[in-house]
């Protein structure tokens, strides 16, 4: 293999066509492509021996490889990356795919969680792959109401109701000696400054109000507010939620030899390993990004590909992402417009819901 990363400019017209046919044939069938098959599809008449010579050159460049002795060739991860970046032709979204997505997401349900569950089901159904939906951070969603609930002398619950209908319950340790009166006072005080503010904005507002109105607030209520506000910071935790749908689509009758790989992928997803970095993969700008194999550390052990696009709220801020996982031989030309359209549609629906 060459020490330098090859480019399309390193290949002549014949080499580029052979490379393209190998990749497209593999993506379509999932099996290695041999020289005999290529002699029947190339635009110019060349011998199988000539094609084998070209394939050897491509193999030396690290763009294709042979999984077995005397077998045909398949693209390497490096070859797939070159194909995706320089050769892949992405068409318009198929009308049938668009209709299925529109139908699934066409509900008037105001709950964002339910909406995003449907997004995952729609994506996995249309693409026949596994879908990922990364939900918005509710730290950035406006708050509608806050409630403190006493569970025991040393345990309390703060209930956060967001403007988009999402509800979160967070446990924390209240100050000793709390009373029903201090609970009510703390709840009333926070709600007087909470509505319309995000959690981060609310934290700042509470600190300012407590400082300026310290004498007006009961000591127990003030300590309860401080304890609850510390819990809202959610330190060391991720408020995002990852929705995975269509696990079974990754396993077919031919994939039994890859069951260990699939199980590793499922385990990674269930444990949400490196999920905190998932959204950051998309934050360099709008549009679909494709991660092949080890390019995405979440799937580095499984050889899977991820096609992902961020979606934005009404303020043009990235708040989540949608994507499709599958084997590296995904039909990228079809999947890319599906993911792109779904991300734009989700962004619009999120914005419409405030």
UniProtKB/TrEMBL annotation:
This protein's record includes keyword Amino-acid biosynthesis: no
MF terms (GO), sorted A to Z: DNA binding
InterPro entries noted in UniProt: GAF-like_dom_sf, HrcA, HrcA_C, WH-like_DNA-bd_sf, WH_DNA-bd_sf, WHTH_transcript_rep_HrcA_IDD
Biological processes, Gene Ontology terms: negative regulation of DNA-templated transcription
Entry keyword Repressor: yes
Domain Heat-inducible transcription repressor HrcA C-terminal: 115-336
Keywords from the UniProt entry: Repressor, Stress response, Transcription, Transcription regulation
Summary of the function given for this chain in its UniProt record: Negative regulator of class I heat shock genes (grpE-dnaK-dnaJ and groELS operons). Prevents heat-shock induction of these operons.
Protein family (similarity comment): Belongs to the HrcA family.
Name the UniProt record assigns to this protein: Heat-inducible transcription repressor HrcA
Organism: Octadecabacter arcticus 238
């Amino acid at each position: 293999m060459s020490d330098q990363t090859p480019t399309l400019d390193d290949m002549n017209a014949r080499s580029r066509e052979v490379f393209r046919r190998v990749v497209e044939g593999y993506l379509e069938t999932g099996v290695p492509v041999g020289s005999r098959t290529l002699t029947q599809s190339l635009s110019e008449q060349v011998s199988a021996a000539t094609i084998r010579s070209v394939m050897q050159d491509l193999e030396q460049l690290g763009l294709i490889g042979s999984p077995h002795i005397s077998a045909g060739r398949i693209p390497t991860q490096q070859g797939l990356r070159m194909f995706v970046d320089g050769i892949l032709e992405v068409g318009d979204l198929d009308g049938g795919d668009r209709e299925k997505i529109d139908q699934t997401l066409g509900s008037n349900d105001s709950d964002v969680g339910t909406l995003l569950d449907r997004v995952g089901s729609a994506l996995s159904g249309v693409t026949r792959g596994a879908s990922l939906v990364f939900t918005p951070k509710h730290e950035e969603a406006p708050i509608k109401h806050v409630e403190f609930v006493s569970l025991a002398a040393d345990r309390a619950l703060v209930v956060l109701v967001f403007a988009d209908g999402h509800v979160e319950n967070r446990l924390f340790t209240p100050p000793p000696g709390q009373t029903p009166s201090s609970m009510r006072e703390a709840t009333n005080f926070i709600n007087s400054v909470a509505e319309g503010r995000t959690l981060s904005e609310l934290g700042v507002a509470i600190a300012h109000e407590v400082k300026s109105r310290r004498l007006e607030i009961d000591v127990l209520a003030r300590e309860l507010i401080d304890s609850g506000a510390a819990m809202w910071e959610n330190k060391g935790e991720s408020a995002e939620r990852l929705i995975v749908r269509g696990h079974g689509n990754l396993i077919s009758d031919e994939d039994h030899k890859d069951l260990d790989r699939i199980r590793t992928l499922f385990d990674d997803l269930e444990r949400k390993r490196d999920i905190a970095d998932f959204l950051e993969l998309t934050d360099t700008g709008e549009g679909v990004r494709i991660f092949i194999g080890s390019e995405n550390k979440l799937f580095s052990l499984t050889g899977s590909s991820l096609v992902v696009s961020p979606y934005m709220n009404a303020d043009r801020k990235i708040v989540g992402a949608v994507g499709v996982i599958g084997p590296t031989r995904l039909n990228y030309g079809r999947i890319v417009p599906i993911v792109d359209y779904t991300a734009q549609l989700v962004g619009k629906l999120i914005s419409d819901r405030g």
